[in-house]
Known about the structure:
Elements: E1 6-15, E2 20-28, E3 31-36, E4 48-49, E5 73-77, E6 82-85, E7 87-89, E8 92-93, H1 107-116, E9 119-127, H2 134-145, E10 151-157, H3 171-175, E11 179-183, H4 194-206, E12 210-214, H5 218-230, H6 239-242, H7 245-261, E13 266-268, H8 274-285, E14 290-294, H9 296-300, H10 323-334, E15 340-341, E16 345-346, H11 350-354, H12 372-382, H13 388-402, E17 420-430, E18 449-459, E19 462-466, E20 469-470
Parallel strand pairs: 1-5, 1-6, 4-5, 7-9, 8-16, 9-10, 10-11, 11-12, 12-13, 13-14, 14-15
Antiparallel strand pairs: 1-2, 2-3, 6-17, 17-18, 18-19, 19-20
Helix pairs in contact: 7-8, 8-10
Amino acid sequence: MTHARRLLIRGGTIVTHEATFEGDVLIEGETIQAIGKNLTAALAYDTLDARGPISPAGDSPALGKAASGSQDLDVIDAGGLLVLPGIIDAHAHIELDTGIYKTPDSWFVESRAAAFGGVTTVIDFATQFKGQTLEEAVAARRRETAPSVIDYAYHVMATDLAPGQEDDLGILGELGATSVKLYTTYRPNYYADDATLLRLLEAAGQYGLMTLVHCENDALVTAQTQALITAGHTGWRHHGAARPVLAEQEAANRVLFLAREVAAPVVIAHNSSARTSMLVAVAREAGQVAFCETAPQYLLLDNTVYEGNEPWRYILQPPLRAPEERELLWDAVSRGYVDMFITDHCAYTRDQKIARDDFTKTPGGLPGLETLFPLMATYGVAAGRLDWPDLVRMLATNPAQIYGLWPRKGALLPGSDADLVLYDPGGEQTLAAESLHSGAGYSPYEGMPVVGRVAATLRRGELLVRDGAFLGTEGSGTYLKREPVFWE
Length: 488
């Protein structure tokens, strides 16, 4: 009889969404078996410290073995380390094809970069291109994501469902892709008018699907962009002015109103404005099932970078906002008005970005999978804006619960997948593209200091990263089929 591999993470500071405490985590195979203190006090171990030396890259580390018992037990001494659930990035774009621009990255490279940053699960996007069924869209995306080393799920971008075809969304429950992405902008390929938004929101809610909406008023963005073009102001430094903050706030307010009218659960995507987050918080307080997310770029960067030497680094939608808006957004985060931190990761390369100093001809999106957790740990927790359990809620628990992955993901509980991050909170390093692993080859956070480092990342009990060495295997990630969720 073959026994599942057993692993003990011993003596770390365990952080859940509710508490922080000293303890051990016992893993058998791919799942957590127990959490507590002195789980194996009766056994003697020859251990290897998680922060100690490792074997050469590509080899498995020589973990300690149990001195007795019928089954080997590997042991990692996590003394001095924080032990957290694996990070879930619930909004990322790997191998993105918009029909206009395409990132030249790969699922293996970007998922490996994610693992270096403690990310063990990503929710990416399956795009329904014109003429495709939703089933074809998901099948095509599954072929593309097969090389991933982390686990993955999809939001399905429904772009070709004419009136009367709303019930086609019902197939997504069978496919396990139980969230839908809609846009209030980006004519003509993604844009949905109000009638389309209403009927698809209603159908999604009826089938137990969560709807994620990119909110910017398309008419306001189009008018402002055209005014800048007419004035000859198309350089990168004018990008922020093309997409005013009011466009986001108005569209979010409208989407919340429509979702409430048809009792549809909704997530307002990548808030760049505190007012947007407040609109969601007010709606939720009134009984609506509504959530929101923001990203490090909106909390750590501001629109003054468009006047700097390299504005190309910061072309994204929504754009960066004024410094005072950034501080207001941090206040909204501290007050609990924001539910998730995400990246909206897009690994366009430097060459793609600098091809032309014209914001209307530059692909929008920033890389960030690998830096999500260190940045939020530094500028959220270490800066005193959040506690560690708050960070776990926003980077693991809330995404898992909102998108139907809980308690398999986002939890340190017996029976949950053994996705863990071991984080050394000591020391400081400076972010630099040359030491990161994304195919983008640049970082919008170049030169920013971060406190601590990821000492190890485990996905379903397998060590993916340890002390800066990648130990995983291409294609070892798995597709996460989710069940529909009907919110009360």
